[in-house]
Design a protein that fits this description.
It is a multi-pass membrane protein. With 328 residues, this protein is mainly α. The protein contains 16 helices and no strands. Helix 12 runs antiparallel to helix 16.
């Protein structure tokens, strides 16, 4: 009997230990946790691979010699490294002049769009006036309406540019030709009618609506007007939205070829020279594989400034996107 009771006591002790271990460790919860970590890791790695695959492919094509194009055993790492493809693509793109024009155009339009869209967004967020909801609905519609639908009137507007017909009234001529210059981009950006400006106004409006009204009320008590309050109180607290709009605007203007070909058909920018590169390459070679290789190298050269910009600004960009409410 004593041995039986001793065995029961040991069994009870072991059972109690197992219960305490299950209560403390919770193996099922631990298993769920590790499964979630594994699934999340696989998902992140898969998404990163999908995003980086085109860049890795272009880089692999750019650094391989022409003879490696027909070697089916080469997948990523070439047998013969060369930098001649970069030199050829650099010359075909006329990179220095095209880079300068692209940089001036992107920076100029981005700053003007940031200022004009911030003013428009602040007006929709804080000022009360008749028709505000209808006007903001029209602004949102500009996000989804393709620009090709107004291509002809937009082109004619800057081909024969005139303000209220005053130029034709005093000179007798049919407007001023602003094409082949930066003016169509700068005027559109100043009036918050540039590329993607509807989205930028929406971003600023949503951000301004989230700011406490006590900031403005305190400024009004001190005798500051609406514009003074906007520049001295609101703008210093709007850095996340400003960073988001500036980066989006620079990248989209840098990659734009539609408006550039519409307004500046003979001016060299990187997006237009890259688009015309196949025709130029066709005059020096008829090998489609070599043309594709140089096109990949040229695309890599065009993307490189934006990649460098994001590397240096990624911290501020991620923080600004989170605070402006574009995700989550």
């Amino acid at each position: 009997m004593s041995s039986t009771s001793t065995a029961r006591q040991k069994a009870d002790a072991i059972g109690q230990r197992m219960e305490r271990w299950n209560a403390e460790v919770r193996p099922l919860d631990q298993l769920k946790k590790w499964l979630w970590i594994c699934a999340r890791t696989l998902l992140i790695v898969g998404i990163c691979y999908i995003i980086l695959y085109p860049l890795i492919t272009k880089l692999s094509m750019a650094i391989r010699d022409r003879m490696d194009l027909f070697d089916m055993t080469i997948v990523w790492i070439p047998r013969h490294f060369t930098w001649d493809n970069f030199k050829t693509a650099f010359d075909m793109l006329e990179y220095p002049a095209a880079f300068w024009n692209s940089a001036m155009l992107s920076l100029g339009t981005s700053v003007l769009q940031m200022i004009s869209c911030a003013l428009a967004g602040y007006g929709f967020a804080r000022l009360k006036f008749r028709g505000r909801g209808i006007l903001f609905t029209l602004v949102v519609f500009t996000i989804v309406i393709p620009p090709q639908t107004i291509m002809i009137p937009t082109y004619l507007n800057y081909r024969f540019f005139d303000i209220f017909g005053l130029y034709e009234l005093f000179t007798g001529k049919q407007g001023v030709n602003l094409l082949e210059s930066y003016w169509p981009f700068f005027i559109s950006s100043t009036l918050a009618m540039g590329m993607k400006n509807g989205l930028f106004i929406f971003i600023f409006r949503q951000f301004f609506r989230g700011l406490p009204k006590e900031l403005e009320e305190a400024a009004y008590v001190d005798g500051t007007g609406v514009l003074g309050t906007f520049w001295r109180v609101i703008i210093p607290n709007t850095v996340p939205a400003i960073v988001t709009v500036l980066l989006f605007s620079i990248v989209w203007q840098w990659n734009d070829n539609y408006y550039v070909s519409l307004y500046m058909n003979y001016t060299q920018v990187l997006s237009s020279t890259l688009a015309s590169m196949p025709g130029a390459l066709g005059r020096i070679t008829t090998d489609p594989s070599y043309i594709s290789q140089l096109m990949n190298t040229g695309a890599l050269l065009v993307m490189m400034p934006m990649i460098i910009l994001y590397v240096f600004a990624q911290k501020y960009f991620v923080e600004s996107v989170e605070r402006t409410g574009l995700v989550g």
